[in-house]
Design brief:
With 248 residues, the protein is an alpha/beta fold. It is built from eight helices and seven strands; from the N terminus they run βαβαβαβαβαβαααβ. The model has no long low-confidence stretch (mean pLDDT 96).
């Protein structure tokens, strides 16, 4: 019960890595707002987790939705001390000059602006309490970029830098800020990264991962649980790779 009595928001919690994190957090004693723009996915996860989870429909790129998400945590559970900015989008592999402007804007809005919007609502609450943890989902793409995914890579590099900047500024207030760098995983985004989900493409991706498998939601749940627990009380500003050795 490493997260006993913690109150957390997990964005993108209705599937993939977010679902794995939400499940681990509840198993370790936390109360969790499962925030997702997919109402059915969020409700499915929250319902399976019982009284310690609530689903909230949120578009993390919209300020009003983010504000309502935070208010839901305060209403349902009476507080908020942990935020997992997991929601993210990618783009199909293509030459960097070929990405449509609206797709670029969506990547900026969901992968980057959403972290700003959430911080604007949540940091004052954490400062008042003099405690809190913010975990941002970055990626190995921000450390070791793959070709033809330039703007996704760049957005995740931004997340890593934002995590470090937030960590330095918020440390005096008792707030830790950390990130995770997963490699491609068995999530709905996998097909986007590969362009097509075929045995040949999977083999090509797996050949770049020394451990020889993709990240799983359980892998990210375990890592997030550690970083958000008191066991990691001296850790801030890190972007921990959960990548089977891909970035070595």
């Amino acid at each position: 019960m490493r997260l006993q009595d913690r109150i957390a928001i997990v964005t993108g919690g209705g599937s993939g890595f977010g679902e794995g994190i939400a499940r681990k957090f509840v198993a370790e004693g936390a109360k969790v707002i499962v925030a997702d723009r997919d109402a059915a996915g969020g409700e499915r996860v929250a319902a399976s987790l019982g009284a310690n989870a609530r689903a909230v429909v949120v578009d993390v790129s919209k300020a009003a939705d983010v504000k309502a998400m935070v208010e839901a945590a305060l209403w349902h559970f009476g507080g908020l001390d942990t935020l997992v900015n997991n929601a993210g989008v990618g783009h199909l592999p293509q030459p960097l000059e070929g990405l449509a402007e609206d797709e670029f804007d969506r990547i900026v809005a969901v992968n980057m602006k959403a972290i700003y919007l959430a911080a604007r609502e949540i940091v004052p609450i954490m400062k008042a309490a003099q405690r809190g943890v913010i975990l941002n989902m970055a990626s190995t793409a921000g450390v070791s970029p793959r070709p033809r995914l330039a703007w996704y890579n760049a957005s995740k590099g931004w997340v890593i830098t934002a995590t470090r900047a937030m960590a330095v500024e918020l440390a005096p207030f008792g707030i830790r800020v950390v990130a995770l760098n997963p490699v491609a995983g068995e999530t709905p985004m996998l097909k986007t990264f590969m362009g097509e989900d075929t045995p040949e493409m999977r083999a090509k991706f797996l050949a770049t991962i020394p451990i020889g498998r993709f990240s799983t939601p359980e892998d990210l749940g375990n890592a997030a649980c550690f970083l958000c627990s008191d066991e990691a009380s001296m850790i801030t500003g890190v972007a921990m790779e959960v990548d089977g050795g891909r970035c070595i």
